[in-house]
Amino acid sequence: MSGGGTETPVGCEAAPGGGSKKRDSLGTAGSAHLIIKDLGEIHSRLLDHRPVIQGETRYFVKEFEEKRGLREMRVLENLKNMIHETNEHTLPKCRDTMRDNLSQVLQRCELELSCKPSSSASRA
Description:
This protein is an all-alpha fold. Among the domains are: 32-69; 70-114. It has helices at residues 20-47, 50-123. It holds the Pfam family Muted. Belongs to the BLOC1S5 family.
């Protein structure tokens, strides 16, 4: 200030020549801060399982999707084989059986129709 006299230190400044007490308290606060930080890290490692759970969840979902994909591929492969077998074997067999049976049914119908007018003529 103006005039002669001694100035007192402001804030955290240590007075020149003495004031080791102020410096010790700052050192303790710094080490306490580091201890609290270390305790926070230990706490998070011991008690915070979110990263582990998230990793396990991601692994489970990945495995589930892979197995689901494989299962769907097997289902599609089975369907493909069934369709191929139906087209190559079952349908031709059914078509041939249907032709044979329909021709027999048609012959029976023609026979009945040819016999029916003569039987209805005898009734009249």
